Structure formats: C-alpha cells, structure tokens
Amino acid sequence: LAQSSSTSRVSQVITLFSLNSSLHNNNTPMKNVQLLSCLLLLQNANAFAPSLSTQRSLSQQQQQQQQQPITTMMAGFGAPSAGGKKKKGKELKLKPKQQWDRYLGLKKEISARVAVQIEGAEDWLEVGRVKSRGNASTEAAVAKQRVLIAEHSRRLFPLKIGAKDTKVQWAYLREGVEDEWVVVNKSILDGAIDGIEREIGFEGRPDPSTGFYCMYKGGQLIEKAFDA
Predict the structure, then answer these.
(1) 124: which residues sit within 8 A by CB, 6+ positions away?
(2) What is the pLDDT of residue 12?
(3) What is the pLDDT of residue 14?
(4) Rounded to an integer, what distance in angstroms lies between the CA atom of residue 5 and that of residue 17?
(5) pLDDT tens-digit profile of 181-195?
(6) Lower CB density within 10 Å: C or N end of the chain?
C-alpha cells in the first residue's frame, strides 16, 4: 500500500512538471488557473494516502495478532491445574472390587467375620469377612478396610445405618468356646507396614439390590454360607 501511494505521487509530480513546462512554452493565459488546479489535486491525493505512522501502527497490530498465544483462546479447556500433589498423611482410599479380588486371591487363608455396631446399640450387624496373608493381622485387615465395611453396612441395613454421619464401631468375631466380637480401633494401623492393603481383602455379604459382592452361575445368585 505504501509503495503504491508513493508511485502514484511520483506520477502526479511528473505530470505536474510536464504540464507546467507545456504551459510555459505555449504562454497560455489559463496556465495559472490550471497550475493551481493541479496543485490542489495533488494535495487532496496526499491527504488520502496513509501516513508512515499509521502504516507502522497497522503493522504492529498485525504482528501482535499473529504472536498472540493460542492458549488464551482455550482458557479452561485442558489447562494444567495447579494441584495434582497428594497430601501427606492422607490415607489411601481403597476400592471395593480391588479388595474383593485380593480377598478371593487369598485362597489358603482363614476368613474372619466382621460386623459393625451403632454407638449406643447392643446388636452387632454382620457385614462380611476379611482375610490377611498368612493370617498375620486380622485387626489390621478390619481397621484398614473399615471404610469399605461401613459403606457396605449402609447398603445392607439402610433403615438402621442410613445416614453417613451415623457413628459405628468395627469388630471381628473371635471364634472359640464362646464366640466374642473383638472391637478394632484404627490406631492399630500406626505400626502397620506400607502397602498393607495388598496383603488383605474384604468380601461383603451379597446385596442383590445393588449387585455388590454377588456371584451368579447360570443366571442364579450363588448363596454363600456367611453364618456358618
């Protein structure tokens, strides 16, 4: 655009000088009027031509638009979060299916029946069974999987343990001459080894209404003798 404007103005100047020379040679009476008209025409043409500062401003705007990062157009879509760091001291949340698979994998270990009791109540509500590798620590198996046990107790006994804020305590059954429910406190985990969740498992009582811990054969639910 700047080059085109400069070429046009050069052509106009050449035309003006040619006309001025022609008028001077011919000594035409109208030469002053025509010369004035040519000067006015040249002045008007220059007025419409963009100035150098305007050209620089337009060029800078185009460069800024081309250099503008694409990420600003995608704000909020896939932008890396500032978080992502795990809080130290926060207990790992266990997955029901994963701990059930680990329970089933401990084929030679002896299972222990587990139950919950609402604070202030007398009855124990049996929820399922736990295992630990080598039968090393039944108490740790209950304490580590206490959240899974409590969550499943709400599925099995929604009328008794419906609210999440219902306080319960956990226990396993010590079988002997006289069966006894042994209360477990989560403080037992203070001396537990790292990765103990891989050495234990939990299987809840089948709940057909939700499908949790249910096994089917030929379309029929397999009933397990949890009370035996």
Answers:
(1) 115, 116, 117, 171, 181
(2) 56
(3) 52
(4) 19
(5) 999 999 999 988 889
(6) C
Give CA 147 to chain center in angstroms.
24
In this structure, are strands 125-132 and 112-118 parallel, antiparallel, or unpaired? antiparallel
Structure token pair of residue 134: 């080598």
pLDDT (0 to 100) of residue 61: 60
What's the Cα-to-Cα distance from 14 to each of 20, 31, 51, 77, 210, rounded to whole Å?
10, 17, 21, 60, 95
Residues 6 or more apart whose CB falls under 8 angstroms from that of 147 comprise 93, 94
Rama region for 130: left / alpha / beta (φ>0; ψ in -120 to 50; rest): beta
Residue owning tokens 């587990």: 114
Cα distance between residue 140 and residue 152, in whole Å: 18
Tell which residue, 20, 17, 46, has the closest CA to residue 34: 20
* Spatial separation of the C-alpha atoms in residues 152 and 99, rounded to whole Å: 13
Backbone angles phi, psi at 82, to 5 degrees: -75, -15
Burial of 103 (0-12, 13-18, 19+ CB in 10 A): buried
Rounded mean pLDDT, 8-17? 52
- 167 vs 223, which has greater pLDDT? 167
Q: How many CB atoms lie within 10 A of CB 87?
A: 6
Distance CA 55, CA 77 (A): 37
Position 74 confidence tier, pLDDT thresholds 50, 70, 90 = very low
> Does the predicted model carry a pTM greater than 0.70?
no
